[in-house]
Design brief:
mainly alpha
Length: 87
């Protein structure tokens, strides 16, 4: 498996060069992006006119995933905020 390269360096290695606050901010932002995705998927599922589709095996609890990722993302961003503001 080849490592993903960007600017001649592994992406993971570049992420490790960031400060702890920057890593928390990136992780919090990623959680909030996933929360937006989960919210859109719940909205899409709620608009479905085919109620039999809700009973299929692949159903995902989007509301719970939205709440979990939104709270986690907000918490991570709140922890990173003082260090980011300080500079």
């Amino acid at each position: 498996m080849r490592a993903l390269k960007w600017r001649g360096m592994d992406v993971i290695a570049q992420f490790e060069l960031l400060s702890d606050a920057a890593q928390l901010a990136w992780a919090g932002g990623a959680c909030l992006v996933f929360a937006v995705f989960a919210s859109l998927m719940e909205w899409r599922r709620g608009r479905s006119r085919n109620l039999a589709r809700l009973e299929q095996v692949g159903w995902v609890p989007w509301t719970g995933l939205f709440l979990l990722s939104a709270m986690l993302g907000a918490g991570l961003l709140a922890m990173a905020l003082p260090a980011v503001l300080k500079g």
